[in-house]
Amino acid sequence: MVRSPIPPWLMIVLSIGGLVVALGVYGILSARQTAINETQSVLPGIKGMGEGFTKIRAPQGTESNPKPSWLWQDTKASVTRLFAGTAIGVVASIVIGILMGSYRWIEAPLAPIISFMAKIPPTAMLPLYMIAFGTSTNLFIAMVALGIFFSMAQSVFQATRQDVTQEAIQKAYTLGASDMEIIFEIIWPQIMPRILENIRLQIGPAMVFLIAAEVLFADVGFGYRIRMESRLLRMNTVYWYLALLGGFGLLLDWLMLKLRQYLAPWFQG
Amino acid sequence: MDSLVIENVSHWYGETRVLNDINLRIEAGQIVAVVGPSGCGKSTLLKAILGTHPTNEGTIKADGIPVTGPSRHVGMVYQHYSLYDFLTAEDNVALGLKLDETSLPYRWFAWPAWHKKRKEHLERAREYLRRVNLQDAAKRYPSGLSGGMRQRVAIAQAMILKPKILLLDEPFGALDEATREDLQIMLLQFYQENLRAKAEGRVPEYTMLFVTHELNEALYVADRVIGLSRFHSDGHLGATVVYDRPCPIFKPEDPRDFSRLLEQKEELRNAVFDPDYIKHHSEYVSFWDEIALEAANLKAN
Ligand SMILES: Nc1ncnc2c1ncn2[C@@H]1O[C@H](COP(=O)(O)OP(=O)(O)OP(=O)(O)O)[C@@H](O)[C@H]1O
Ligand SMILES: [Mg+2]
User: Fold this and answer.
1) What pTM, to 2 d.p., does this model score?
2) Are residues B246 and B281 in the same domain?
3) Which domain holds residue B151?
4) Has residue B78 been placed in a domain?
5) What are the respective helix, strand and coil percentages of chain A, to the nearest 5?
């Protein structure tokens, strides 16, 4: 029957089973490919993946001028860009969204521009950002920040309007609130979990924007490495990078969820 | 002492005049019920007193101060949306103290002092929760409270600032019968508090104006009933006060004997709710005359 529950042990067995089957199918495909071509690197086996792992962790540079491993260089570059971009985009959209939801005279000039910009696929704006920021770190930060800013400013604005009822605001005035207190003591705590939920949902798009920009313009970072390595069909390193991206995304998602549960135990979605 | 004075207030939405020439005076310690046909403008009147819908004509004064917008002098309890989801019951009640007695910069920059004050606020909040019999639910969020408990918290939240008048718009309208009765009895207890205060020469703390569509509730809880309606000789101009009389006073422990109310209920139905019974609007507006008469009789004896 639809939605009928299954026992927990079956749930666990099935989730592990899914993973095993997926890996099994990959193993078979990989073995067949190796049978055709001894030196294939498109579907590397366990040995190939092991080599890939060693490679991404190997120190780079020369004896006189040592550099950290690819993994370290790329993680540092990409994570810095992702966090800086997300932080700027999130903070800006929270400030603008709340102000728009609180004051009509701020909403009036900004709302049309923001709704328009939110409709342009952010990656299509890349060339523009390239002209504005060159290919420095700022380009990637700007791509991520502006990529999430417009749609997130819209959702913060919506939340400010819809999650905070007129009654809630009037009530606060009868309790002696000032305008600033309405914003900081009523609107902010009410929409904060909704914003955390939004940030969680924006992590995916933020990574898309970052990788897209890095594939095109970077000389270090996850997107750059994936492009360089797949050009040479060295998929054993590419797969490690993809797996790391997936794991990183899951981890951030989980952290945001926990943060929301910790900060807003009352929130019910 | 007058808590609320309404003089010649009219209100219209666009072209349609809803309220016409309302005059009303409410004294500290009165618990006043407002009844009237659906859509006659009861909520509009409350919003005008609250100050969210400024009146087009006339003046409203709370404790002698003209109402220009929502302020701490006029409290409000809505039927829904009464509490802040993100605050526990005690935090909801303490919110008024926090907003009224401290400021944002104080809370941000003088936090040791704020921390101390906060403790005292929560103490007072719990005292108000005790008054509405909810001391055990202090740490719970609104989502974990029943509808009746939420309204109790909402009343405590509004009362803690000691507003000159507390407005309640169908406060128990969404509650089941038993819960409703409990809350009615709570209001009767507040009224007894008022009587005690008056007897001791203090200013009574609970002055309330509540809208209800239940005539029994109006007559049982209130000491004064006001009827709002447009069924009077110049009703085409809008609704006005067509009924204003004292009503029986119940003690919390009295039996809920509504047969005492039958006669006045009939009078109310006639004067406020019957579209075919057109009279001059002041025919049943006699509250202050009756009070004066009673005082005179008391003196004579
Ligand atoms: N914002 C508004 N704009 C236009 N008309 C309104 C507005 N609010 C209320 N009205 C109209 O004003 C009249 C009075 O409304 P109000 O809500 O005050 O009535 P009420 O007595 O509280 O009714 P109810 O018993 O249904 O709660 C109604 O006819 C209503 O349609
Ligand atoms: Mg109403």
Assistant:
1) 0.89
2) yes
3) 84-162
4) no
5) 80, 0, 20
Which residue of chain B is at minimal alpha-carbon distance from A170? Answer: B70
Domain end call among B114, B138, B162: B162
Question: Which ligand 1 atom minimizes the distance to the CA of B16?
Answer: 5
Q: Which domains does chain A have, with CATH numbers?
A: 1-34 (no CATH), 70-263 (1.10.3720.10)
CA distances from B257 to A216, B33, B114, B177, B250 (A): 83, 19, 50, 16, 9
The model's pLDDT over B199-214, given as tens digits with 9 standing for 90+, comes to: 999 999 999 999 999 9
Interface confidence: ipTM more than 0.85: yes
User: pLDDT for B243-271, tens place per residue?
Assistant: 999 999 999 999 888 888 899 999 999 88
Residue nearest to atom 22 of ligand 1 (CA): B43
pLDDT band at A186 (very low <50, low <70, confident <90, very high): very high
pLDDT tens, position by position, B118-151: 999 999 999 999 989 898 999 999 999 999 999 9
Q: How far is CA B86 from CA A196, A268, B143, in A?
A: 15, 11, 9
Of the residues B108, B138, B162, which one is the last residue of a structural domain?
B162
Closest listed residue to residue B189, CA positions, set B249, B145, B149, B244: B249
| Best residue for ligand 1 mutational test, from B18, B76, B214, B228 (most atoms within 8 Å of Cβ) | B18
Residue A154 has, within 13 A of its CA and on its CB side, a CA count of 15
Over residues A217-259, the pLDDT tens digits come to 999 999 999 999 999 989 999 999 999 999 999 999 999 999 9
Q: Does a structural domain hold residue B268?
A: yes
Distance CA B67, CA B49 (A): 7
B248 within domain boundaries: yes
**Is residue B28 one of the residues assigned to a domain?**
yes
Residue A15 carries which side chain, given as an amino acid letter? S
Q: Which candidate from B52, B78, B86 shows the least CB-CB separation from A266?
A: B86
